[in-house]
Design a protein that fits this description.
Blueprint: E1 4-11, H1 18-28, E2 32-44, E3 47-53, H2 56-68, E4 74-77, H3 83-93, E5 102-104, H4 119-129, E6 135-136, H5 140-147, H6 151-157, E7 162-164, E8 176-179, E9 184-187
Parallel strand pairs: 1-2, 1-4, 4-5, 5-6
Antiparallel strand pairs: 2-3, 7-8, 8-9
Helix pairs in contact: 3-4
Length: 188
């Protein structure tokens, strides 16, 4: 059986981000993507225009259909759009904790500009979703917004590990740093 990866996030019509891009990467690795959109975006490489929440009953139906067809081997989240969606999603992900890896990519802004998460979204991540994460993968601005730049604060919330993405740095290299409670590894 091909491993199945549940992808929960925003739909990007240009294919450059969100569950669209995640599904491409998962498929290129020979796995089966299970994309579920919690938000719809109007964006392309020139800019972010709008974000529309998918009604709860619709994304919950997609979620149920995806997990109802067979086992899920890993889960990745992306742009979730609202504090309510984060809280509700966390409730539905709890049964998977300890069973499959849950990767939380706390998308708090758009690279092209035009989107920034509200304060209640940050609070919902900290309270509901990050404690479930096997791995949290914040970039520099996300780490600053969620934990004042303190990786230890994310680990203290319950994240199994934090991969601090270094693509927003000033140097010639992007250095990603994987933090666990016991060790740290850098990747250039």
């Amino acid at each position: 059986m091909t491993a199945r990866v549940l992808l929960l996030g925003g739909f990007d019509p240009s294919g450059g981000a969100g569950v669209t891009a995640d599904a491409t990467v998962v498929a290129l690795h020979g796995l089966q993507p299970l994309p579920v959109a919690l938000a719809l975006t109007a964006q392309n490489r020139h800019g972010f225009r709008a974000c529309y929440a998918v009604p709860e009953e619709q994304w919950l139906a997609m979620f149920a259909a995806a997990i109802g067809e067979g086992p899920v081997h890993s889960i990745k989240t992306g742009l979730l759009g609202s504090a309510r969606a984060i809280e509700l999603l966390a409730r539905h992900l709890r049964p998977f904790v300890g069973q499959v890896p849950i990767v939380v990519d706390p998308v708090l802004s758009a690279t092209a500009g035009g989107y920034a998460a509200a304060a209640e979204v940050l609070a919902a991540y900290r309270e509901h979703l990050l404690p479930l994460a096997s791995l949290c993968v914040p970039n520099e601005p996300e780490l600053h917004a969620l934990a004042a730049g303190d990786v230890g604060a994310l680990l203290a919330l319950g994240c199994g590990a934090v991969l601090h993405k270094g693509g927003h740095g000033d140097g010639a290299l992007a250095i990603d740093t994987l933090h666990t409670a016991r060790e740290r590894h850098c990747f250039e």
